[in-house]
Amino acid sequence: MLEKLFGWGKKKAATAVEPGIPFGRYSDNNKPLVKVNRWTDADNLFKEKKFPESLDAFFEYLRDDAAQNVVYERNGAEGRFELYQGSKVVRGSFDKEAVKAEVTLARMPQPSVPVMRRLLEMNFNLYYSRFAMDTDRLCMRFDSDSEMASPSKLYYGLKELATKADKQDDLLVQDFTALEKSDNEHISVVPEQEKEVKYMYLQKWIGETLDTIAPLDADKFSGAIAYLLLVLIHRIDYMITPEGKLLNELEKITGIYFKKDERPVTEKNRDMAEAFKNMQALPKEEVFKNLFRSKYTFAIVAPQPYKAVAEAIHAANQNMVWYRDNNYPFIASQITEYGISYCQYSYSLPKAVTELFHLYMMVNYPEYFVALGYKKVYYDPVRKQFVSQAVIDKIKEIQNRWKDKYPNMDFKTQNLRFDTLINFNLTFTNEMEFLNMEPK
To answer: Which residues pair with 139 in a beta bridge?
Structure first.
């Protein structure tokens, strides 16, 4: 049965077609070199006052060819574009005079003072865009004179418009009964079997974490408990990929811990654990409503120098040593996961780094991937055995795919240890810490 479940027949696994399931938050820090060069083209063309040609290069830079997240058409000096961002579509147009864009948030059949007050307050936090009403349609708008529409202004203006709209449409409809959902027909449905698996593992991972922290001394193990709860946020975010209300609840739990206040960690841990209990109690139908496929154009987090990634990994690996040496292997393993998963959650990482992180998660959670229909297995948790050559081959494949952009990226596979899972995790993340991710 184990042979069948974990697919140890290498030839069969190697030729199997894996499910095309997206994981984690979208990162726009994934441009191949040819796309990066188009940004330079857009900037140079704008300085030469060749505005239509600059827009050609700009939208080609934005377009993720795999995701097909941008539609762009131009006829002379005029044209139109669409950008997909989660549950929203940004629609825009341009001519010799201006660039304009808007996104529909919701329908408001009857005027609502509370809604308008909320929008007025949020307007103060917007730099490039603004909320607007068009008959019964609640929307956000951005515009700029063509002569002022530099690639940088367009990027940050459209990013603000798209990301704020994607977040606010769900929250507004959730908070105000006067509003109705609108313009979300482009969302793709997740298969029911996939939803079932994701719901089952959402319950499983929350249950395992709460069961682990329950017997621990809340004061003496406050740091470990915080690690366990925070890494659970990151795992759910990446593996389950929730949207809407569920994603918002995860962000609220993160906020409990990182809010700058004087509360002790023990209190924050208690509140985070309580919030996870509430999430665990959500009806299955409510969870299912927040599992859907979306296209994205912008990351909701910003890129960071790779030094920040290296420091996060290093700090976590240093903090796991005591737990490893004092017979808390599960906690130690979770802390190691925290270092890199924190970066995946908090930063817009280079795609090459995300692919390495994905391999790390496939090694550590093979049952989940098998349940989703994946055939390639890198680690058997029952036998506690690695398919070490498959891991090494995958790392080399990732490096080869990105060598044009990151020529000095050198993951030393000879330093990996395959004797225990915790030693593998430590040596794998150590190698990630010292990667040279300087782009060409």
So the answer is: 104, 132
Residue 235's pLDDT is 98
Nearest to 257 by CA among 364, 170, 345: 345
Please tell me the predicted confidence (pLDDT) of residue 12: 42
pLDDT at site 3? 47
Single pTM value for the model = 0.86
Answer whether 234's CB lies under 8 Å from 344's CB: yes
Which residues, 6 or more positions from 222, have their beta carbon under 8 angstroms from its beta carbon? 264, 265, 266, 269
pLDDT score recorded for residue 180: 67
Residue 73 neighbours by CB distance under 10 Å:
11
Helix (H, G, I), strand (E, B) or coil at 84: strand
Structure tokens at 157: 């203006």
In order, the DSSP letters of 34-61 are HHHHHHHHHHHHHHTT-HHHHHHHHHHH
Angle in degrees, CA 351, 29, 164, rounded to 5: 125
Question: What is the rounded distance in angstroms from the CA atom of residue 399 to the CA atom of residue 396?
Answer: 5
372/196 Cα distance (integer angstroms) = 10
380-419 in b/e form (b: 16+ CB < 10 A) is: beeeeebbeebbbebbeebbeebeebbeebebebeebbbe
pLDDT at 282: 94
- Say which residues have a Cβ less than 8 Å from residue 328's Cβ, sequence separation at least 6: 224
CA angle 366, 372, 86 (to 5 degrees): 115
Separation of alpha carbons 343 and 347, rounded Å: 5
Q: Report the C-alpha gap between 366 and 64 in whole angstroms.
A: 29
Low-confidence ranges of the chain (pLDDT < 70): 1-16, 170-171, 175, 177-180, 182-186
| Tokens describing residue 315 | 């700090």
The pLDDT score that the predictor gives to residue 19 is 83
Q: Amino acid identity, residue 419? A: D
Structural tokens at position 220: 């003496």
Tell me the per-residue pLDDT of 291-327, one tens digit each, with 9 for 90 and over.
Answer: 988 889 998 888 899 999 999 999 999 999 999 999 9
Q: How many CB atoms lie within 10 A of CB 120?
A: 10
- Strands 70-75 vs 78-85: parallel, antiparallel or unpaired: antiparallel
Q: Which residue, 199, 274, 295, 275, is CA-closest to 240?
A: 199
Give the H/E segment covering residue 437: none
CA distance 149 to 46: 8
Q: What is the pLDDT of residue 177?
A: 67
Helix axis angle for 329-346 and 306-325, nearest 10°, is 170
CB 277 within 8 A of CB 192: no
- pLDDT for residue 1: 41
CA distances from residue 311 to 62, 109, 190, 316 in whole angstroms, order as listed = 30, 51, 36, 9
